[in-house]
Amino acid sequence: MTINLVPDMSVTQAEMNDYGYVWGGMLPLKPAMAKVLSKVITVYRLYSDDTEAEIDGTEDIDNDIDAGRNYLYGVEKVDWYHYLISYITNIINNKAVC
Predict the structure, then answer these.
(1) CA torsion 88→13→33→70, rounded to 10°?
(2) H-type helices in the chain, by residue range?
């Protein structure tokens, strides 16, 4: 699945791959964006051995930062796609101005 509107433009797929996480179904996030998105979508902590773990919220990210852990985070492409569709649908239905 190709997604042209990525959730965090400050990190690329190539950087995520260089970090050691290579599954193509994940979109990478840096901690700041992970904290924002964790309030509305499932966010994962990515590990350099190509595994991930779901975070429980912003406190998990804050704990990682406080402990000096330099993790990348991510959202699954399918989840991001569904979030975008829902967001756009809500804008259209409510006739909100962006």
Answers:
(1) 160
(2) 13-19, 31-37, 58-66, 77-94
User: For residues 72 and 41, what is the distance between their CA atoms, to the nearest angstrom?
Assistant: 16
- The arithmetic mean of pLDDT across residues 7-27, rounded, is 96
pLDDT of amino acid 60: 96
In this prediction the pTM is 0.88
The CB-side HSE value for 69 (13 A sphere, CA atoms) comes to: 14
Q: State pLDDT tens for residues 35-50.
A: 999 999 999 999 999 9
Both tokens assigned to 12: 């690329």
Mapping DSSP to helix (H, G, I), strand (E, B) and coil, where does residue 35 land? helix
Residue, of 1 and 12, whose pLDDT is higher? 12
CA 35 – CA 43 distance, rounded (Å) = 9
